[in-house]
Write a structure and sequence with these properties.
Helices cover about 20% and strands about 35% of the residues. By secondary structure, it is of the alpha+beta class. Bound molecules: nickel (II) ion (NI). Nickel (II) ion binds next to helix 3.
């Protein structure tokens, strides 16, 4: 039986900063891990999750493409993803399930990228994505190398925190970054 995955937060920074290992064989254990990642992602307000975020240092991420079209697709597992080619860096939205409630519009990510990965059965494939989907793949591959989205902020970046107010959920600018 699978252990219920627990999301790691910045207090587990050492684990989030550890480089993940390549998946060599698609064992049952790997299949279970992919399912755990998908199940966990579906219960969270995010579009991607990487194995190290649940404490497993294997090069597997799950992503939900289609945010630009306004409809997120079912989670797709990318095993051993490698970015092959990237477009120019552009500022965009970013947030991370390991840093809940904090978001930014000032992360530098490629406007498009081409990547190679293996699917759930281990079959290799290549894909080109752009916009939010490209930022998403870039963000998740970063997790496999121990890189956090805060490392990718542009100079003078602004961070926002979501807070519950009388008018409901609101995004508030964190003007004092040192208080983080
Ligand atoms: Ni993340």
């Amino acid at each position: 039986m699978a252990i219920k995955p627990v999301l790691l937060y910045p207090q587990d920074e050492k684990k989030l900063r550890t480089r993940s290992q390549k998946v060599k064989k698609m064992h049952t254990e790997v299949q279970t891990l992919m399912q755990d990642l998908k199940d966990t992602l579906l219960t969270k307000p995010g579009a991607g999750l990487a194995a190290p975020q649940i404490g497993v240092h294997k090069r597997i991420v799950v992503v939900r493409f289609g945010q630009d079209e306004g409809e997120m697709q079912a989670p797709l597992a990318l095993v051993n993803p490698v970015i092959l080619e990237t477009g120019p860096l552009t500022k965009g939205f970013d947030g991370c399930l390991s840093l809940p409630r904090i978001s930014t519009w000032d992360t530098l990510r490629p406007a498009w990228l081409r990547f190679r990965a293996q699917d759930e059965s281990g079959k290799p494939f290549e894909m080109k994505v752009e916009g939010i989907d490209a930022a998403l793949v870039h963000h998740e591959v970063d997790h496999l190398d121990g890189i956090f989205f805060l490392d990718r902020l542009s100079g003078g970046a602004k961070l926002y925190i979501s807070m519950t107010t009388e008018e409901g959920e609101k995004l508030v600018l964190l003007d004092n970054l040192s208080s983080l």
